Amino acid sequence: MTEPTPSQTESTQSKREKYAFLKAEAAAPYKGLRQFIYIVFGASGAIGGFVFLIQALAGRDVESALPNLALQVGVVALMVWLFRLEGRKKRQ
User: Fold this and answer.
1) Global model pTM greater than 0.90
2) Within a 10 A sphere around the Cβ of 10, how many other Cβ atoms?
3) Could you read off the pLDDT of 13-55 as tens digits, one per residue?
4) 45, 55, 67, 72: least buried by Cβ within 10 Å?
5) Strand, helix or coil at 57?
6) Is the CB of residue 18 less than 8 Å from the CB of residue 56?
7) Cβ–Cβ < 8 Å for 13, 57
8) Smallest Cα–Cα separation from 48: which of 71, 64, 79?
């Protein structure tokens, strides 16, 4: 039998890589998009939390700043939990 040419070997390897990628995408569709959303929302919550923390420390409108701060901390905690949950699914 003849040896496969380098282009045939590369073609077979790229087909295997594409198949592996498609199989992973079928198992967890839009995983990259979900992780991006978790990071963006987490960053938004962290910025908002920082703003409301500074506002509460300055003593400006503390009655509305504290509940908003708690909400922002909750958003960050939720995004961290979802991101970690996504990572656990990957390892299993």
Assistant:
1) no
2) 11
3) 788 888 888 887 787 788 889 999 999 999 999 999 999 999 9
4) 67
5) helix
6) no
7) no
8) 71
